[in-house]
Specification:
Blueprint: H1 3-12, E1 17-19, H2 38-55, E2 63-67, H3 83-88, H4 92-108, E3 113-118, H5 138-153, E4 164-170, H6 189-196, H7 198-205, E5 210-213, E6 217-218, E7 221-222, H8 227-237, E8 243-245, H9 253-256, H10 264-274, H11 286-294, H12 300-316, H13 330-333, H14 337-350, E9 352-356, E10 369-373, H15 399-407, E11 412-416, H16 429-437, E12 441-447, H17 491-499, E13 505-510, H18 518-523, E14 526-529, H19 537-545, E15 600-611, E16 616-626, E17 636-640, E18 653-658
Parallel strand pairs: 1-2, 2-3, 3-4, 4-5, 5-8, 10-11, 10-12, 12-13, 13-14
Antiparallel strand pairs: 6-7, 9-14, 15-16, 17-18
Length: 659
């Protein structure tokens, strides 16, 4: 948009906030060439603020909102592991530190509001946005969400180098029937309160300044027009003092998708009366809301209440006193080596060791020749996940880069892609086998991809549109729901051919959702789960492979044996699941699972229960010891079982953990 067209637009329509102004990706058509550098971004946002303040009737500063799910989604910012990897750390303190970095980088270029964290419970990995979630458990998601809110916002709204947190997506967005993104569900109020609302309540009570409604409906009521959710629960029960914002086009979706509104005016009326304060798209409210007010369908009192909620936050953020950023501080805050080191630490702690037969890992002395094979071994965008800005090649360390950097000249490293994630027309399995046959050990790097490209088409909401004719690697990320969890393309075929060589194989999976690892579990001696580990992921993975770092990641989501088990989350309601004819009912790898190079023992368990008139206090203590000669970290997890209850409860529930 040119300066003139923007000025013309502002003259015609009042603008109080802008979203994703600095976002760069194929949907926005911003590249490393056409997008803004951090310094340019700060200068542009300052110019925008200055024009708005000096050329509008009230001179109210803009609220600049940006995507920050695993780093600011802008050119030059640090790229961290996606949320499912962040949750695998089981380390809220580390996530708070990470969020502080994201806040500092976003604030430096003019952003004051960050869209994140995502607090959806992901209980069906077919759902395309599983990678954006902290997993399947309300307690774990809540603890991670609290930490990120604190890291983004600091002690109070308005601190320098801090931004406001907008919670996503309110609520129960991650469990659509059939795994269809934005689809409906029929969750009842008891289940909603016990599981899905809990993480949001924790984050609201931690001070989150804004919350975003979800695209889905719950038991027939769209979230963007659900008065019970937005007024009764959020405002009255939780005393929320911030503002509610729609997801992109979710107000218009009342008419176009859910069909609960006959017109745009009716959709706008339903949403604002339900308590939805701000329209992200600008087209859901806009002329529709103006018409609704003029026709008497929406009172000025209702409109004033929404405006007050937004203005209150702008005052708390200090926008009226300090609307500009210091352009001279950008280089010292964005993409620094210090920030990069934190990204590497999050990547290290996010890695989950799933299998390590005969202690194949860490790789032993005597290895002279390594074959690195697979579509995700040397592909920077397959390593980064959805909601990622364009990156220069030299900024991202792939697995191949990490291995070569770590071993130097002392070990021969050869690489062959072998196949793509989805495309089967250009596989070269024979050459991959030829290289692998010469090696002492094979590192197979496979999985999935959320990498957007300029060939992919997109919905108006920004979700990628699935097209059968498109053979990009993308099989995950917003809009890319799956019918199965099998490896796509020729990946499993390649892995089986490598297995026939009789060489030791380490399978490293880089992906955004659990995939079917049943064959690998039966046949491959070592399996490493890395999710999308971010720009430093390749080095972190290499450090684990060679024992420079002892993995302590634990699964935040269950890994099924088969699609037919879904949903397979651990804390389902009683009774206990019985086995299927074809297989046992338990997942292949359960929630909370993860191995270490060390061995830990638990002893001297003590449980003390103190009864009260209507409740009780339970104190648990025990000793954890590392009984091996390898230093390592353990994630202690405490689960409870409600043996007798007035209503049906979960078979077990996580109630505490410590790293």
């Amino acid at each position: 948009m040119s300066a003139k067209s923007l000025k013309d637009l502002i003259a015609k329509r009042p603008i109080g906030a802008l979203w994703a102004t600095l976002r760069a990706d194929p949907w926005t058509k911003k590249t490393l060439i056409t997008g803004l550098s951090p310094q340019q971004a700060a200068k542009a946002i300052n110019a925008l603020q200055k024009y708005i303040i000096e050329n509008t009737r009230l001179g109210i500063p803009l609220l600049i909102s940006e995507e920050v799910p695993h780093g600011h989604m802008a050119i030059g910012a640090t790229v961290f592991p996606t949320a499912i990897g962040q949750a695998s750390t089981w380390n809220p303190k580390l996530l708070e530190e990470m969020a502080s970095v994201i806040a500092k980088e976003t604030y430096a270029v003019g952003g004051r509001n960050g869209y994140g964290p995502v607090l959806d419970l992901a209980r069906d990995p077919r759902w395309s946005r599983t990678e954006e979630s902290y997993g399947e458990d309300a307690y774990l998601v809540g603890k991670m969400g609290e930490a990120v809110v604190k890291g983004l916002q600091g002690q109070r709204l308005g601190e320098k180098d801090k931004i406001m947190s907008t919670l996503k997506h309110f609520v129960a967005y991650g469990v659509p029937e059939g795994g269809h993104n934005g689809g409906f569900n029929t969750i009842g109020e008891r289940e909603l309160r016990h599981h899905f609302l809990k993480p949001f309540e924790s984050a609201v009570r931690a001070g989150a300044g804004s919350i975003m409604t979800a695209y889905n409906s719950i038991d027939g009521i769209p979230c963007s027009s659900n008065e019970w959710l937005l007024k009764q629960v959020l405002r009255k029960e939780w005393d929320f003092q911030g503002f509610v914002v729609s997801d992109l086009l979710s107000i218009s979706g009342l008419q176009g998708n859910h069909r609960t509104a006959a017109s745009g005016v009716e959709a706008a009326t339903q949403s604002i009366q339900a308590g939805l304060d701000m329209d992200l798209s600008g087209v859901g409210y806009g002329d529709n809301l103006l018409k609704a007010v003029k026709e008497g369908k929406v009172s000025m009192q209702t409109l004033d209440s929404a405006v007050a909620n937004i203005l209150r936050v702008k005052f708390k953020l200090g926008l009226f006193e300090n609307p500009y950023v210091d352009e001279g501080e950008v280089l010292a805050k964005v993409g620094t080596m210090e920030n990069r080191e934190i990204a590497r630490q999050v990547a290290r702690e996010s890695i989950v060791l799933l299998k390590n037969e005969n202690n194949l890992l860490p790789l032993k002395e005597g290895v002279k020749h390594i074959a690195v094979i697979g579509p995700n071994a040397d592909n920077i965008y397959n390593q980064l996940g959805d909601y990622t800005a364009p990156q220069p090649d030299e900024k991202v360390v792939t697995v191949l880069d990490g291995i070569r950097a770590l071993v130097g000249d002392r070990i021969k490293v050869q690489y062959e892609k072998g196949c793509a994630i989805r495309d089967t027309q250009h596989s070269d399995i024979e050459n991959a086998k030829k290289i692998a046959k010469q090696a002492d050990i094979i590192i197979a790097v496979m999985g999935g991809s959320s990498a957007r490209d300029f060939r992919t088409s997109y919905e108006e909401t920004g979700a990628a549109r699935v097209e059968q004719k498109t053979l990009s690697d993308m099989e995950s990320g917003e809009g890319y729901d799956r019918a199965t969890l099998d490896f796509l393309g020729d990946q499993l075929k390649l892995l089986k051919e490598l297995h026939k060589l009789g060489k030791p194989i380490v399978l490293v999976t880089i992906k955004g959702r659990p995939l079917n690892l049943s064959w690998a579990q039966e046949n491959i001696p070592a399996i490493v789960e890395a999710w999308y580990p971010g720009q430093e992921g390749g080095m972190a993975i290499a450090e684990v492979l060679f024992g420079k770092y002892n993995p302590a990641g634990r699964l935040p989501i269950s890994v099924p044996r088969s699609d037919g088990q879904l949903p397979v989350y651990y804390n389902h309601n009683k009774p206990k699941h019985h086995d299927y004819i074809e297989m046992e009912a338990k997942p292949l790898y359960p929630f909370g699972y993860g191995l270490s190079f060390s061995h830990f023992t638990y002893q001297n368990l003590k449980v003390n229960v103190v009864e009260k008139s209507e409740d009780f206090e339970c104190t648990i203590s025990f000793e954890v010891s590392n009984t091996s000669d390898i230093d390592g970290d353990e994630v202690v997890q405490v689960y409870v079982v409600d043996e007798v209850s007035s209503v049906v409860t979960a078979v077990k529930q996580l109630k505490a953990f410590e790293t």
